[in-house]
Amino acid sequence: MGWPRNILLWNLMAALITLGQARPKFSSHANSRLKGDCLGNLMRLSLHEALAVGNQLEVEAINGTTNIALTPSLAAQCGYSMESDPWGNTRIYTSLLACYVDNKNDEVFNIGLALKMYSQSLSAIVTHNVAETCSYSQWASREILCDRNYMEVSYRMAKTDAVKGHTQEESNAVPEASAAHGIWKMTFYTPEPVSMVQREAEQAGYSSMITSKRVVMRSPYNTPETYSEDVAGVPMEVFRVSAYYKDPHGLSVVNMVAACPTGGVLFADDVISWHVPYRITPLLDGTFKVVEIHMGINGQRLDKAQISTRGYKLATTEFHIIIEIPIGAPDGYFKSHAPDYQYHVVYTVEPMLEVLWTAGNGREDTRYKVLFPITTPLIARPPRHQDDTSTGDRMFAVLLGDFLQDVELRNITFTTGVLTVQECNARGYIVQEHTTLDNSKGFSLHVPFDADVVLKRNPELLVTEYVLPVSFGLVVVPEEVPFSHTLELHANLEDVVLPSLTGICDESNFYLSVKYGSQGSNFQTWLGHQHLTEEVLELYNFQENGTHFSLIVPYNAKDTAFEIITSNSIRARADLLLYDHINNRALANLFLACTFPLITTNCYSNGTMTAVAVKVESLNNLTPGSLTLKDTSCKPVFSDDRFAYFSFSVDSCGTTRTFFSHYVMYENEIGHFDTRNSYKRTSLATAPDPEYRQTISCYYVVNETKAISFGYKPRGVDFATQVGQGHLDVKMKLAYDSSYQSCYKDEEFPVTKYLREPLYFDVFLESSDPNLELLLDNCWATLHEDSTSTPSWDIIVDGCENKDDGYSTTFLPVHNPKVEFPYQHKHFSVKMFTFIRDEEVLEDQIYFHCNAVICDSNQMEGICRRDCAYPRDSSYTYPGMNWKGKRDDSSQRLTSSGLIHLKH
């Protein structure tokens, strides 16, 4: 592989330092960062990177008192070339036969160069004037120089005969040639001949001159008058020309040819092999003898010890001279690239081959010198990372490398977004740049486990896996070509503290408490088979303080389980489960079982018995409504999915009677008598009702004597009733919670509540008459104690919730066993609110009022027939209600709550 011929040689590729405005400096060797070397027929000027100012360097040739800017085309025409690495180290080569060199008899050569360095803004210019003198007298008969941008050939002038066919008169007609430009015309062979006079050739980009002893021709590569030729499998660029010039003996001609390799490079096993033809046929007509072969780097010869120490090889075969250079040898350099956003490097090195051979007669010798920059194809170099994560320090640590010095880290992409290096350090994610002994570069990143960019998951119950996905955003400078590298760091720690559960009971409630573990409240809470959402939690008086939460669950709540029932108690259980729904596993559970008082059978002096049948957990398929007494026509007067309530007289429903010495026992049984006594199955797939049998009994004393008064008055023919006078009280109380086990006393008002906190109201009738029932007609709220004051807001309208209220009223069942007549109580819940006008709170207080209707359960007509708010099912009643019949008698009562304050 050769080098591109059409690049702008004068653009530096490095990131450069700023020196500021400076006055021109004249130097030969005074500045150690500017070094001139005389290398045979070349002068090399080395410019250290520390002198670079910006990204552009302008080189001028000093020609006496005039400076001439060397553009790329003029440099190729006149014998100048330049090479720089990515860091600004620059080499400028000048042929001793270049256009603007002061040539003293082809032995002493004075070279003057002016270096102008521009900053990014082009406002600051630093100029260095350099003068170097080289001596060179070992000129071969023919010297051929192949530099990176031009081919040069020079011949020693010899006395020759006049050109055949030209007379002396014709020779006198040739224009006088000056000392610098003595060539009259040239004929180029491409291979067809093309003739030009000296001025035409110069305009075409060629250079020709006559020195005191030599004829010089120079051509850039790839001109119309050059051509390619394959020599021993190596492509060569050939420049062949006949130059006519006038000397004291008349018109003379010299046939000149240069051939320079443009290929011949092989890459294998991390080694560069450069092949140059041993016999360059365009330059040889017959036999020849190779006298010297030298290898060099950057235009300078290396001796055998230097070649061996650096791992180079110089060898010859029958057809080739071969130079081998290991990829990465110290005389070359690497450069970063990022095609398709993937990191690659190339290696560039500039070997030199110098050969001296003699022709068959031994009189003519040729010095052949080639400077040949070689750049490898792209070499993939995926970044590597070193994971130094410390679980003891709870810190992710990673080192990313290896990069060349022309790579910079610009940003890092985390799961939460992209952060610059400065933003990373500001957040405590420490980013640092490191340089190793071999001058490669790496970047380290430190991120704490607890940072918000770290993902956490739990592959095992007590183990936390910390995951840090990152993508490093990098660029190659100065081209600003972006690429990235993504990696994911993992660390496992057995650091999970699970939540814990505790619970106690009183006579009617479970009191459950949950202490959060190390993962906070990141779990689901289940009570029985019910997922406790925010709405459900409110029903159980949910309280939370950041480290704990607590619940109050009535024993007869629908989410508890009944285990055992006796005649005077029930054993209930609350199953609380904390569930990790992401990993599908239980974090903690509590099975709290307690015994609560419950009278299942009541015996009344009027010969009536009532009994409650309870569905226990072991009878999962039991339907309480299908239970009967011994007389299967005696069914529950009320049932739901957990209870069946029976009410009957002792002389009915198959009740048996047994006498003892001083008492009598009435006994019956609750069970599935029709299913148990039937031998017919409707379907084999229909499971039979579970076995259930509950014996109920009442005892009455038979030898007890009681005195009663009896009065008799004969009645007349007309029957009449007398109107009795009395007073029925309806009251409203505010309960502490949804269990309604206790209520605020009068002296505790005013009560303070938060906005939207549930308020639990109990409106009830104080009466011992089992035939009376209380229904709610209308309920509303006011700012003042006067129920007729304004503003007001309806919460119950005609026994139904207010549809215009965004936070509607919730009717609650009456499940308190302490209440003798549940149908004389109405429970409902309202969320705390306040009155607002024009977005301003009027007052931080509120009163509630209700109109209640008292009905005779034996007569259900008129207003007593409403059933909007109170469907006749288990949700709002307690076993014992008889909803059949009609009403024709009612009475309304007004009741109000105490003052309730809004707490901010």
Helices and strands, with pairings:
Layout: E1 25-27, E2 34-39, E3 42-47, E4 56-63, E5 66-69, H1 72-78, E6 80-84, E7 90-95, E8 102-104, E9 108-118, E10 125-135, E11 142-146, E12 150-156, H2 168-172, E13 183-189, E14 193-197, H3 198-203, E15 207-210, E16 214-220, E17 227-231, E18 234-247, E19 250-261, E20 265-268, E21 271-277, E22 288-297, E23 300-301, H4 304-309, E24 313-316, E25 320-326, E26 333-337, E27 344-349, E28 351-359, E29 365-371, E30 374-375, E31 379-380, E32 384-387, E33 395-403, E34 407-414, E35 417-420, H5 421-426, E36 430-435, E37 441-448, E38 455-460, E39 463-476, E40 481-493, E41 500-505, E42 509-515, E43 524-527, E44 530-531, H6 534-539, E45 543-544, E46 548-554, E47 561-565, E48 569-580, E49 585-597, E50 601-603, E51 608-614, E52 638-639, E53 643-649, E54 656-659, E55 663-671, H7 673-676, E56 693-701, E57 729-735, E58 751-754, E59 758-766, E60 772-782, E61 792-797, E62 800-801, E63 810-812, E64 825-831, E65 836-837, E66 840-841, E67 845-856, E68 890-896, E69 900-903
Parallel strand pairs: 1-10, 11-29, 58-69
Antiparallel strand pairs: 2-3, 3-7, 4-5, 4-9, 6-7, 8-9, 9-10, 11-12, 12-16, 13-14, 13-18, 15-16, 17-18, 18-19, 20-21, 21-25, 22-23, 22-28, 24-25, 26-27, 27-30, 27-31, 28-29, 32-33, 33-37, 34-35, 34-39, 36-37, 38-39, 39-40, 41-42, 42-46, 43-44, 43-48, 45-46, 47-48, 48-49, 50-51, 51-53, 52-53, ...
